[in-house]
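One thing: could you explain this record?
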Amino acid sequence: MAAALAKAQAECQNVVMNKTNPHFRSRYADLAAVRDAIIPVFTKHGLSIIQCPSAIAEMGFVLETRLMHSSGEDMVWHFPLPSDVNKMQSIGSAISYARRYTLSAIAGVASEEDDDGNAATNTNGGGSTAGRGAAGGTQAGGNTSSSGGIVL
């Protein structure tokens, strides 16, 4: 699986940034653009991805992303989702956001402008920075020998 992922990552190009975030005045790639850039390359190398929301007792509401290889090996990551979301549109938005960041991180591609960490360190009322940055979740190896880690 590691060899297939390395080959796929080497072929993946950074994603075309096709949207603008008016709050941060930054460009980013929507979920469709991220999938269009990654999934065909991954498929070519026997890799597939399943992403679905889930609840884990010690973590709460998460997006679970499972990367699978045709050999039967797999890897799993959990991206924390906000628990205070009370509208279906907000939940859907958080899931789409987590899917974009997790897919981009696994593929090793950029899908938004790099602000050099400014949004994550802004303390002057720049809005919530929760969830901004690379996909941050825990990783647990399925049938692999992975010992876990953080998705960056």
